[in-house]
Design goal:
Blueprint: H1 2-29, E1 37-43, H2 50-63, E2 68-72, H3 80-84, H4 102-105, E3 106-108, E4 114-116, H5 122-127, H6 130-141, H7 143-146, E5 149-156, H8 160-168, E6 171-176, H9 180-196, E7 202-209, H10 212-230, E8 235-241, H11 244-252, H12 256-259, H13 264-278, H14 288-296
Length: about 300
Amino acid sequence: MFDQASKLRDLVEERADEEAQARQIGELRFDMAETTRVIAITSGKGGVGKTNLAVNLAIGLQLAGQRVMLIDADIGMANVNLLMGSVANRSLVDLLSDDVQLEDVIEDGAAGVKYISGVAGIEAALNVNRLAQRKLHKKLGRCSEMADIIIIDTGAGLNRNVIEFVLAAEEVLLITTPEPTALADAYAVIKAYSTYTERRNIKLVVNRIRDEEECYEVTDKINQTTKNFLGMTVDCLGYIYEDKTVREAVQMQEPFLIVNPESAASRCITELAKSLLSGKRMESVSRGWRGFLDRLFGY
Ligand SMILES: Nc1ncnc2c1ncn2[C@@H]1O[C@H](COP(=O)(O)OP(=O)(O)OP(=O)(O)O)[C@@H](O)[C@H]1O
Ligand SMILES: [Mg+2]
């Protein structure tokens, strides 16, 4: 009896929400001027430097005058907060509670970067019922009011949730190291991506290089394979040197760009931020953050 009543209540609630949602989507169609950049950071192999790139690039862009928000969407190893050097009290999944608002899950990180942390459970959140999805969609929509650039740290590899984030993002940075296994896995991501979408907005970042030459070699190797088998090539946005200050900063749970802004890795991050800001946005028609959410939630 109780069960039936609560099911009915859910249904009524869902209908009401559906209508509200329809109205909201109608409104969103007029909101095409929203230009928040959405950049997903992903990799084939794990442990190649995604989170370090996401955190430090976010700080680099913020220091360059952008309002940046970082969202940790790595289901397995949500650890942006560890590298941010501050403790997050809440995460994205908490938005599913009615009494939790967007502001409640946004933390202040280094240099004024805003971040949403530790999404252990996001898989559950994305696969839950449509009502919960819509709640998330609606609450997250307002992120674009608070940020010029939203960076998303995805997990590694080809599982469904990672691919969904990558496909929904307007721009994708695929990070790899020069190791053959990392290259093979990076290629697998490009291949998967190219089978799902016609868009060509993946750029490479080559991490842990000894010298600049190594970055060109890596890019060439990947592109020889992509040209032969996929009929396409990818550009390289930049590189990050192998640098012991990265490990030292990780030990201290601080971003290396803050600990040592003049280190080799930090200077590379500053260059990457400059390239992102000066270069052409990768996709000609951008639909901003709300476009990202619409794609992610399948609207
Ligand atoms: N440029 C670098 N120089 C030296 N060490 C590095 C560099 N980049 C990353 N590392 C090392 O690699 C480790 C893993 O980096 P990070 O956590 O950013 O990888 P990840 O791709 O996010 O991993 P996961 O797939 O587990 O999420 C760092 O803790 C650091 O020790
Ligand atoms: Mg990580």
